[in-house]
Amino acid sequence: MTGPQSLRRLTHPMRARLTVLRRDERGSAAAELTLLTPLLILLLLFVVLCGRLADTKLRINDVAHQAARAATLTRTPSQATAAAQATADAALASAGITCQSLSVTTDTQGLRPGSTVTVTVSCTVGLGDLTMLGVPGSRTFQSSFSSPVDVWRGSTLANAGGPP
After folding, report:
1. Alpha-carbon span 5 to 145, nearest angstrom
2. What integer pLDDT is reported at residue 158 of this predicted model?
3. Mind giving me the DSSP string for the chain?
4. CA distance 69 to 146
5. From CA 13, how far away is CA 140, in angstroms rounded?
6. Of the candidates 134, 141, 138, which has an alpha carbon nearest to the alpha carbon of residue 95?
7. Residue 121: CB partners within 8 Å, gap ≥ 6?
8. CA pair distance 38, 43, nearest whole angstrom
9. Which of 59, 75, 134, 142 is the most exposed place for a label (fewest CB within 10 A)?
10. Could you tell me the CA-to-CA distances from 47 to 50, 54, 133 in Å, in that order?
11. Which residues cross the membrane (predicted)?
12. How much is the mean pLDDT over the chain?
């Protein structure tokens, strides 16, 4: 048997082996996991970044709340501004947030009983410090909070002239 029939016999076993190899899927899951692992790690790091950003925004909101409340407990607008700044610094340190630049703006509206004190806190945070992942850049968080001045509290002007 020479000719095309003997050639078919020789190529047929090789074709069968190649077909078996092509259909064999052993190890494919490990190869796919190896290729997808860096992508999954990046996705996890992105989720961590988003969580830390949300947590920092909540902490800045709390700092503005504390600063506004501290400002309403003072008697003069200059004391209110100083109290808001000091409270914001202390609250940020307590929360573990380091601002590259911090701005605390206080609107006292004369600090009269029944008025409202509004404090705006603006804090620029480096993302490398925030996420502990070395992400470049920074993000500015800003939050405002208004707190009413107690209607029934005494004021230094009313007490200076005797009973109200």
Report:
1. 91
2. 46
3. --SHHHHHHHHHHHHHHHHHHHH--TTHHHHHHHHHHHHHHHHHHHHHHHHHHHHHHHHHHHHHHHHHHHHHTSSSHHHHHHHHHHHHHHHHHHHT---SEEEEEEE-GGG-TT-EEEEEEEEEEEHHHHHSS---SEEEEEEEEEEEPPTT---HHHHHTS--
4. 8
5. 69
6. 141
7. 60, 63, 64, 67, 88, 102, 103, 104, 142, 143, 144
8. 9
9. 134
10. 5, 11, 12
11. 29-50
12. 83
The answer to whether the CB of 83 falls within 8 A of the CB of 71 is yes
Nearest CA-CA partner of 76 in 113, 111, 116, 106 = 111
Own/partner contacts of 34-39, CB < 8 Å, gap of 24 or more, are: none
**Would you say the pTM of this structure is higher than 0.70?**
yes
Residue 111's alpha-carbon distances to 8, 49, 74, 80, 144, in angstroms, are 101, 40, 8, 8, 17
